[in-house]
Amino acid sequence: MPADDPVASRRDRLTATWIELAIRLGVLAFLLYWAFILVRPFITIAIWSIVLTVALDPAYEWVAARMGGRRRLAAVLFTLLSLLIVIGPATWLLLGLIDSLLTLSQQFDPTVLALPPPPDAVKGWPLIGEPVYEFWQLASTNLKEALARIAPLLKTLGGALLAVGTEAGAGAIKFFIAIIIAGFLYPQAPALAEAARMFGRRIDSERGEEFIRLAGTTIRVVARGVIGISALQAFLAGLGVLVAGVPGASLITSAVLILGIIQIGPSVVIIPLIIWSWFSMETTLALLFTVYMVPVNLLDNVLRPFLMGRGLQTPIVVILIGVIGGTLSQGITGLFLGPIVLAVIWQLLVAWVGGEKQPAS
Question: Are 237 and 270 in contact (CB under 8 A)?
């Protein structure tokens, strides 16, 4: 082969180019990987900061306008007010939850608690009758020994509950930090919104800006349609159980709030509570308690379609699937990310099939 063969020379240059490109891509991937490792602990805080800024921006703008356009002072006052609104009820719920757990631990003290012997009918239960009867009989005569038998299971359950509690505590701290960071973002909201629109146009010159606007609208819809309604239900339910003198009011309020946010609904707590009231309260008080709690239980079914249908063309069922799926897969952060992703995908699907308007929700 001649030394100056143009084909071989071109092939060598092409090979060198590909090797250089592979090295550059490898270095870029390595840098991106380490950048992700470094920012990963702050991703949840960043997401919550953006969500709070977008969701509360209309209220912040209203406060800033009432303060003569002094946006930084309005941001400070708005942040302090947000912290007070969150910390006050959260402290009450936490202290009440601790008190309820202490009460339960005292009531289930093995040295005081006595279980009745099992009825003979338990033996007739299929498959599990005999072991359940034997364990129940042991617990009724020697509760400590019965608990010692299931100690490994209780240890596993306790570890799982401790992990959940630790994660919840870490999430609460991140949320408080996100509120403070959002305070720095409020004055810069117009510039940040314009930067987001420019980024959307770079991604898709035709519909990128529309997708950015859709993401902001979805955040506000989910905030008022899920978290807002759940907080309102929890407040009304907590007020009802406090006035009625139901024990464990903070625990019940926390359960109603959490079940509402994760879309299970407060019926799991409120319906058994109503049934309990008829066995534990006077008839008049139980009737009043029922008349009050039934509308509270149905509040989300009435308000959510109305609130989540305002300002958003995406069907409600798509948003609800995003809320539930996002919460189950990514926790509380997925509560917002899920519906945003599905709403954008819905818009892309509608554009792909050639529709200019989405079906009414």
Answer: yes
